[in-house]
Amino acid sequence: MTGLLLLHPDGHFLRVNNAFCSMLGYSEEELQKKTFAEIIHPDDIAASKEWVQRLLRGFIAKQQFEKRYLHKNGQVVWGIVSTTLLRNNGGSPRYFVTHVVDITARKRAEEERAKLEG
Q1: Could you tell me if 27 and 21 are in contact, meaning their C-beta atoms sit under 8 angstroms apart?
Q2: Do residues 26 and 107 make contact, with C-beta atoms less than 8 angstroms apart?
Q3: Where in the sequence is the domain holding 50, given as residue range(s)?
Q4: Which of 34, 78, 83, 114 would be a feasible disulfide site paired with 98, CB 3.0-4.6 Å?
């Protein structure tokens, strides 16, 4: 399942697809009232904000990393996140285009294997 979302440079959701909504248990309307930081696992917020700042400052053009989201029911959802910042003709940030691939099942299998091998 791959979520697609557009985020305002301030972190608010502009648009999300059905896959992202299903992944996290929220409707598009609910997500549009939130910022990305409100649905990220607390341990991943600082790193996520740092990547956003690096993109906004132009240090990097795109970024891919793994992070945890929080489902509406509180469960952890792992994703591989690919983000690009699109700018207008004047160079000002317009929005982030982000793809999120759900890798929760893989992460759970890795955790189980580590326990068995541990």
Answers
A1: yes
A2: no
A3: 2-117
A4: 83
CA 25 to chain centre: 14
Retrieve residue 78's tokens. Answer: 């792992």
Q: How far, in Å, are 33, 50, 51 from residue 65 at the CA level?
A: 25, 12, 10
CATH number at residue 83: 3.30.450.20
> What's the CA angle centered on 78, arms 76 and 79, to 5 degrees?
145
Quote the distance between the C-alpha of residue 93 and its chain's center. 18
- Whether the pTM exceeds 0.85: the reply is yes
Half-sphere exposure of 106 (CA within 13 A, CB side): 9
56 DSSP assignment: H
Q: What is the mean pLDDT of the chain?
A: 95
Q: Which residue has the tokens 């906004």?
A: 56
Structure confidence by residue, pLDDT tens digits, 51-77: 999 999 998 989 999 999 999 999 999
Tokens of 26: 């929220």
Strand partners, 79: 67, 102
CB 66 within 8 A of CB 79: yes
